[in-house]
Structures are given as structure tokens and as C-alpha cells.
Amino acid sequence: MVELDRELARFEKLPEPNTAEAARLAGWIFEEKRIEAFVAELDGRVEGVAIFWEGLGSSFRARPFLFLEDLVVSEAARSRGVGEALVAEVAREGVSRKVLRIDWVVLDWNARAMSFYRRIGAGPVTEWVLYSLGESAMRRLAAASGAPAPIGAVGGRVGKRRKPPRRGHRVAATRSVRPRGL
Fold first, then answer.
1. Which residues contact 56 (CB under 8 A, 6 or more apart)?
2. What is the pLDDT of residues 40-54, one digit of tens each?
3. Separation of alpha carbons 129 and 126, rounded Å
4. Angle at 35 between CA 33 and CA 40, to 5 degrees
5. Could you give the angle at which helices 2-11 and 19-26 cross, rounded to 10 degrees?
6. Class of residue 68 by CB neighbours under 10 A (exposed 0-12, middle 13-18, buried 19+)
7. How far apart are the first and last CA of the chain?
8. Residues with catalytic roles
9. Domain-by-domain residue ranges, the chain?
10. What is the tens place of the pLDDT at every residue in 56-111?
């Protein structure tokens, strides 16, 4: 699996995961169960992996979704049905969990992947725009003195308020913890 992850990084023109990062990923999958993975084997060798996790698909429907974080098929195994088999297995998992949908993102220059996704029935979501708060921006926001801290948490720790909220405004945060193994 680690070699496939490294192959993906090279394909996406990103630095390959180091030993510590690879070990952390394995720990999240096999020990902590934070994320899940299916692997595909050909001739006794792992040639593909689908890494996914479950999240809240809709608060007002109270139903989950699956997010396909990575779908990686080795160069040698492409066009042999490995990717479709992996996505089909994630779809079966989604059906068994009664999820609303399976989401993922694809690089805008990966035309081969987009063609594959359309062929299996997926399509781009045009009415939503993906936003991301990167690590440095997240740290800046978290440390910002003007942002009120939560006044309390359900299932978590009580936070200290840095700045009083405006009159009539209360900021509360909830933190739920998912039991291991679920």
C-alpha cells in the first residue's frame, strides 16, 4: 500500500510520503480505525487501493456519506478493471451503510480519471464550490485574537473565551467522539 501511495504522490507531482507518514497512515487504517481501505490484488500483488472515510452527508437528513480520499491503481494494472472493482466495493460498502453518496475530488488535469468516473456513473458537482482552509491559514485563524473562543463543548472540554461575544451572541462548540470500532 505504501508503494502505491508513493506512486500516487509522484503522479500528482507531490513529495512522496516519508517513513513516519507511511506508518501514521497504516496506524490510522489498521490500529485506530480512523479511515478505511480496500486493496485489490492481481497475481498475488497489491495493485490498487481505495482509501475512504465516513462523514456526515446531511445534517437535516441525518445520513452519512463516504469520502473516497484516494483511489490508486499501479501503472502496470491500469485498464484491467482494478479501479472499477475498488470503486464498486466502496459503493457496496456505501449501500450497506445507507449513505447518501460517495464524494471525491480529482485533479483538473487528470482527464483519464474524469473519463473513468463518468463511465461508472459519477459526475462533477457544479453547484458547490470546494473551499479549503490550509494548515497555515487554519493556525492563523485559530490564534486570531478577534475570534471568540467557544464557551463550552458537549462531549469535550470547556474552552476559555478570549473576547466576550457581542451582546446577544453566544458561541458554542460541540465535539462528538466516535467509539472505536464503529
1. 64, 65
2. 999 899 999 999 999
3. 7
4. 105
5. 120
6. buried
7. 23
8. 117
9. 2-119, 145-176
10. 999 999 999 999 999 999 999 999 999 999 999 999 999 999 999 999 999 999 99
In words, the CATH class of domain 2-119 is alpha beta
Helix (H), strand (E), coil (C) string for the chain: CHHHHHHHHHHCCCCCCCHHHHHHHHHHHHHCCCCEEEEEEECCEEEEEEEEEEEEEECCCCEEEEEEEEEEECHHHCCCCHHHHHHHHHHHHHHHHCCCCEECCCCCCCHHHHHHHHHCCCCCCCCCCCCCCCHHHHHHHHHCCCCCCCCCEECCCCCCCCCCCCCCCCCCEECCCCCCCC
pTM, two decimals, is 0.77
Report CA-CA distances (Å) from 21 to 5, 16, 31, 39, 99.
10, 9, 15, 19, 29
Sort residue 20 into left (φ over 0), alpha (ψ -120 to 50) or beta: alpha
Total residues found in the chain within this entry: 182
